[in-house]
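Self-study notes.
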Amino acid sequence: MPSFERGAVLLRASDGHLLRLTWEDGGAERTRRLAPGKYELVGYRLLARAADVTWHVAATATKKKPLVLEAERVTTLEIDPTITVEERVQRDGLQVAVLGQDRAGLSIYRAGKRIPLAFRRLGEGGAVRGEGKITYGLGGGGWARFEPDEEVREVELRLETPPFPIRRVRS
């Protein structure tokens, strides 16, 4: 049984076979029967609706934490929906990591399209000195390079807000 309302997971059984389990329709039946044994979470997809738009996050490169299933016992598959956005501003660029549970690489989608991460370079008094978009995806990371500019006082990362919790970390 999943901890989330709508989504899907990809599990790898101990024999190497992949299993996709889905709860994307939001139906009432929450349990899925699997053979007892050890499984690994390979990836996941969580869905949510906001303002008549479907959003989803897709995670890959998850840490291979074992999920042990026992006969005749219900196990809850816990997935934290929090999106972590790590920003590292340097003199010549902005590095961004978009991460899900256990630092899995994460992509964010709105109406089926990956949303871009936009940035602005701000000078004195908030004047825009440059702007652009960062491409990110599988693995969750992205990088924007720019020419050093002594007038830049701040780099601002702009992210369309999905209906999932967001934690921002800047270093």
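Second protein, same conventions, sequence then structure:
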Amino acid sequence: MRFTIVAESENYYRVLHYRNSYDYKGKKKSISKRKFLRWKQGRIDDTNYSNVEEIATRTEEIELTDKERLVLNYLIKEVKANKYIVEKDVVVEGINKAEATRTVRNVKLLSSVKLQRIRLNKELKRELDIDIESYPTVICEVNI
């Protein structure tokens, strides 16, 4: 068990906990100082959430420009109608191709409206019922 103490408050340690040597991301945990020594020695099971609490990730509010809002509304409408839209087919009236492409490739903007940008493979082509010879990048819902 590896860990890194990221921050310390009056009563808690903020810890980045790595389960094994293959875990490179780690999980953020908040552990009280009086329980930390026992947790470090392995006496407290870290899956017992009454002893160790997970820190929820923060979501930042994203401010959209008018052009980004138009592109995102267009993407949402097309995805609802067809289940997907090919990235190169995104054309919004009044917005040039470069600005539309920049908005489509922004992962934070797409994730805020529950869309994702993925490269097609054989399974996805079958799942989305796409008859294209190539494997283009498409915008679709997150749950696919």
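Instructor comment on the second fold: The CA atoms of residues 50 and 60 lie 28 Å apart.
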